[in-house]
Specification:
Helix 1 packs parallel to helix 6, helix 1 (10-20) runs parallel beside helix 14 and helix 10 packs across helix 13. Helix content is 34%, strand content 22%. The protein is α+β, with helices and mostly antiparallel strands. The longest helix is centred in the last third of the chain and has 19 residues, at 408-426.
């Protein structure tokens, strides 16, 4: 069997490795007794085509160059898109432990932080790239870079790939693993979408994900630009507690990246031209450690202890002074006046529920991932094989499944590659 994998990112490389080393695929099975004996079967010939000059380009930049390659909290709850819930089977057969086991077999220990984010022990993305590249070399995968696939068509049961240089080759099976159209500074359209559409598939709405947000209250955030805090953020029924960064255009930080995917669909599907009341809102709690009542009580006790302190003096131990002054201004309180309980209550109440109206994304080509993709209604989500074009498999970010910030998207790359490789090896 000749298999073509289009795309040399995390999903494509991993799928190629499993196909050529089925013993590693089998080593990750949780129930060995139910595994068919594929190790003794013939190993397929695998060709990996990458239109860029090198493999794993996006992996090198992941996690600010440290590569959080999975997360101990992996579950369908951390995947969005119109079909995020359909990730369940794949994540069940390739859980967090499987990701650790895989890279352990490749000679890479890992470290997991309290957040669940998991990195190579070296804290270097290059370590992940090195391990995967060494796996491919050992496995004997035919890797061809600077080789874009222009078109695919079927002749009987075989697939004919036409390359950008005009040449053609035929294969028994094809795996599309081209990733999405957005990444840090990424400007090219993912041709996997075009290839899938030509073979009968449909796309859901595409837009950048895991991206900073522009808000209507730019005057507020601009005045606080550069201030970074830990905050509880909530929107669209989701709440996270993580870093928040105020910027000249709006809100950024890990917390916003984690939250952004769940509110961007509403922003990009036509509500931008409507009134502000219909736009998504992010509620920011700058003081998540205690309740509002407790903060008010603490502030009033502090005032009693230091009666000469002004409003800014009392509150600047709880919040950065610039934030205190901005909150006081919005509450029509003079930060340099003597406090009373009502003024402190107004400021602290707002600090625990500060609302920002989201206007859109900041620099759409700077999203970390692509929301949307090939509809999962047209894919067997157990094998990742196309329901409209037998013999075609789709894995990774090209599918309409996207994880939040924190290693979930790379985990989906390994997991979907694992599921598709298992189905192909069974064939």
């Amino acid at each position: 069997m000749r298999i073509a994998i289009i795309g040399g990112g995390a999903a494509g490389v991993t799928c190629a490795g499993f196909l050529r080393r089925p013993d590693l695929w089998q080593a990750l099975q949780s129930d060995k007794a139910q595994v068919s004996d594929i190790v003794e079967s013939s190993v397929p010939e695998v060709f990996l085509f990458e239109k860029g000059e090198s493999l794993l380009r996006k992996v090198r930049a992941t996690g600010n160059g440290r590569c959080n390659f999975t997360n101990s909290h992996v579950s369908p709850a951390h995947y969005t898109g119109q079909s995020g819930r359909q990730s369940a089977h794949v994540l069940e057969i390739f859980p967090f432990a499987a990701a650790l086991r895989l890279f352990g077999l490749l000679g890479m220990p890992a470290v997991t932080f309290e957040s669940g984010m998991t990195y190579p022990a070296t804290l270097r993305a290059e370590t992940v790239v090195n391990r995967l590249s060494a796996w491919l070399t050992d496995a004997g995968v035919h890797t061809v870079c600077s080789c874009g696939v222009q078109a695919i068509h079927k002749e009987g049961d075989r697939f004919v790939l036409r390359f950008e240089n005009g040449k053609e080759q035929s294969f028994d099976r094809v795996v599309i693993a081209t990733g999405g159209s957005y990444g840090i500074g990424k400007k090219e359209w993912s041709n996997g979408y075009s290839l899938a559409k030509a073979l009968g598939h449909h796309l859901t709405s595409l837009h950048a994900g895991m991206v900073p947000l522009e808000v209507e209250e730019k005057a507020r955030t601009s005045a606080l630009a550069g201030i970074k805090m830990t905050a509880a953020l909530s929107a669209q029924g989701q709440q996270v507690t993580d870093d928040l960064l105020f910027t000249e255009y709006g809100l950024s930080g890990i917390g916003i990246l984690r939250l952004s995917n769940r509110i961007l669909d509403a922003v990009v599907t036509g509500v931008l031209n409507t009134s502000s009341e219909q736009l998504p809102t992010v509620c920011v709690n700058l003081l998540p450690q205690h309740s509002v009542k407790e903060w008010i009580s603490n502030a009033w006790q502090l005032h009693a202890r230091f009666p000469s302190w002004r409003v800014a003096d009392v509150l600047s131990g709880m919040l950065p002074e610039a934030v205190v002054r901005q909150l006081a201004k919005e509450c029509e309180v003079d930060a340099d006046e003597a406090p009373d309980k009502e003024n402190l209550e107004r400021i602290l109440t707002r600090a625990c529920a500060w609302h920002f109206i989201v206007r859109g994304v900041h620099k759409k080509d700077h999203g970390h991932v692509t929301c949307g993709g090939v509809s999962t209604d047209e894919i067997d989500m157990r094998s990742l094989q196309s329901l409209t074009c037998p013999g075609l498999y789709l894995i990774g970010e090209v599918i309409d499944i996207v994880g939040e910030c924190g290693g979930y998207n790379l985990h989906w790359a390994w997991a979907s590659a694992y599921a598709a490789a298992g189905a192909l090896l069974a064939e």
